[in-house]
Amino acid sequence: MNPFIERLVNDKVDTAFKNAQIPKKFFITENGRGVVDGGDLYNAVVADVVSIMKVAIGEILSEMVTQPAPQKAPQPAAPAKAAPKAAPAPKTPLKK
User: Fold this and answer.
1) Under 8 Å CB-to-CB from 58, ≥6 apart: which residues?
2) Rg of the chain's alpha carbons, rounded to an integer?
3) Which of 24, 42, 57, 87 has the fewest Cβ atoms surrounding its Cβ within 10 A?
């Protein structure tokens, strides 16, 4: 991955992550009761998701930068205009 893009993605995602309101850590136990505060497990899952997202965004942007601009499809040539029809020759009476 392009180092500039990688640094840019990391900085932007880290800033957005710091400014985000992360939902409370809520887990359901075996007996069906909810527990708030998953601790290290929750933080590890969030960190994994964020790191995967950083890599994916970085790869997408790198690909966009390195790909050549899409070429416009060749346009069909304009149909040739039909040549104007010649005026009919004047009719002359047949001589006997």
Assistant:
1) 1, 2, 5, 6, 9
2) 35
3) 87
Between CA 36 and CA 51 the distance in angstroms is 24
Assigned token pair, 35: 């527990």
DSSP H helices, the chain, are 3-19, 40-66
Q: Are 37 and 25 in contact (CB under 8 A)?
A: yes
Q: CB–CB of 66/52 below 8 Å?
A: no
Instruction: Express each pLDDT in 47-89 by its tens digit.
Output: 888 899 999 999 988 888 887 766 777 777 777 677 677 767 6
Residue 6 phi, psi dihedral angles, 5° rounding: -60, -45
Q: Is this structure's pTM higher than 0.85? A: no
DSSP β-bridge partners for residue 26: 36
